[in-house]
Design goal:
Length: 133
């Protein structure tokens, strides 16, 4: 099963009910991050998988700018109490194919929010996790 089908199926299941795995606050925090990303890049799909917020967004073809948008929206949700790691999947808007992915550790966002890590340090750490698809 390809990633898009998996996320689409997961989103359907999520929409039908979270079955106690995540509470309303988790979904609200995730939706807040999605709204921030949607405004700048557009969002294809998103889900809460296990203990990770996963978002497929349309790439601008500028990786640093893409990561800044996703990481900032995620960090804002973490500042509001969201406590899950994140994974971003950049997809091509024309064909929907994955281009690259990256991970964001909850602790990195917390350190950024707490002033222990600069924006450049935060984004650099995330860039270290990039995997080309």
């Amino acid at each position: 099963m390809d990633r898009r089908h998996y996320l689409a199926t997961g989103a359907t299941v999520l929409g039908a009910g979270l079955a106690g795995c995540f509470n309303t606050s988790d979904e609200e925090h995730a939706r807040s991050a999605v709204d921030g990303i949607e405004t700048e890049l557009g969002v294809d799909l998103w889900d809460l998988e296990d203990d990770t917020f996963v978002v497929d967004f349309y790439t601008s073809r500028d990786r640093r700018a893409d990561i800044r948008v996703v990481a900032t929206a995620y960090a804002e949700s973490v500042a509001d109490g969201f406590d899950h790691d994140a994974a971003g999947w950049a997809v091509d808007e024309d064909d929907g194919e994955p281009v690259y992915s990256f991970d964001i550790d909850l602790e990195w966002a917390q350190a950024f929010n707490g002033g222990e890590r600069s924006e450049d340090e935060y984004l650099d750490r995330i860039e270290e996790t990039i995997e080309n698809e």
